[in-house]
Specification:
- Two copies of one chain form a homodimer.
- In chain A, 44% of the residues lie in helices and 12% in strands.
- Chain A is α/β, with parallel strands linked by helices and 201 residues long.
- Chain A has a domain of 95 residues: Dna Topoisomerase Vi A Subunit, Chain: A, domain 2, CATH 3.40.1360.
- In chain A, the strands form two sheets. Chain A has a four-stranded parallel β-sheet. A two-stranded antiparallel ribbon of chain A has the order 1-2.
- Chains A and B meet through helix 1, helix 2, helix 3, strand 2 and helix 5 of A and helix 1, helix 2, helix 3, strand 2 and helix 5 of B.
């Protein structure tokens, strides 16, 4: 005997397919949705349906935003000789929140991942090459701001090999101890990176 | 300058209001929804909109399921002298999965919580009293299967006081060490309960 009504189980299954939502969270969300006011439930589905129609992928940098070219690509005050390469639009948002980056971005749309079948053809790499080759003013530096994990590192190596002949400065985010970290619990790679990248004070 | 397009921010905000979805998860889910196939996105909203119309609250036990009375309340093989009192339908499902309960259920629809303003009037307590008073065969035992936290304990105390005059057996789930627990890390209340409730072998 099925534990839940069919429509409820359908919703639980659909929520369970979303990233980061396990079976228990899906159950909890589904019951919350059951108890929501009708208006709120309609509003939620309206937002889900409208999101794609109302946003555009910027033809220059590849980020999802309200216009193409996006506001950042059109912003005259940005340093167009400096490109920050990120995997996804939310990584761009994370860097914008630091207030420490004044260049423009390039969103790859993912990272190389043989397990999930993401190859170089699936990423916005040709766009990056064309941008660098045709840029006026010429690009001075490309900063790879990808996650410090296997996929991110692989993607950096791949792109660095591709861009090396263009004779521009290539850099990556510093690795080291995050704020508030505990030396005792830091893994040896991170601690080694923090040592190698030590700064004079 | 807003980081995200309005429609994207609307979706992130709507997802962020769901239980257990923080700002970062909401961002991640929103971008997943942007990248979903149109069909899948429509299906998700269909499930969200349909769930409420297609399920009913059982008039007997109060659980959300496809019919009222629900299949469990109609099941002749169930022991109708034994009522398991749970807070929500998902708790009922959790107990059903154990295969260790053969009685019927009563879903309160929550627990007493002064912080969120849930009082006895908001819970399906009168339904429980009427069921017990009018039950044929008469109820022999009521098992409180509520979470072992402050709200659950308060609700058990409140209901026990209410049901005591009816002279039926009242019981609660055992507290003790969960399977795979580590004595060293168990809190003193749990360990004390495990000692008091020790079983001869």
């Amino acid at each position: 005997m099925a534990l839940y009504a069919e429509s409820l189980q359908n919703l639980i299954d659909a929520l369970n397919r979303l990233p980061g939502i396990g079976p228990k969270s899906a159950e909890r969300l589904a019951f919350h949705i059951v108890k929501m006011r009708d208006d709120d439930r309609k509003l939620l589905t309206k937002h889900i349906l409208e999101v794609k129609d109302r946003i555009k992928k910027c033809a220059v940098c590849g980020q999802w935003n309200s216009s193409s070219p996006c506001k950042i690509c059109l912003d005259e005050k940005r340093d167009r000789t400096l490109i920050g390469v990120v995997a996804e639009t939310q990584d761009l948002a994370a860097i914008e929140r630091t207030g420490e980056f004044w260049g423009v971005y390039h969103v790859l749309g993912g990272v190389l991942n043989p397990l999930t079948g993401v190859t170089a053809d699936d990423l916005n790499i040709n766009g990056l090459l064309n941008r660098i080759k045709n840029s006026e003013p010429p690009i001075v530096e490309v900063i790879f701001a990808l996650n410090p994990d296997v996929e991110g590192e692989t993607t950096i190596l791949y792109l660095a090999k591709l861009l090396r002949p263009l004779k521009i400065k290539l850099s990556r985010l510093a690795r080291g101890l995050p704020l508030g970290a505990d030396l005792e619990y830091a893994d040896e790679v991170t601690l080694g990176d923090a040592l190698k990248g030590r700064r004079s004070i």
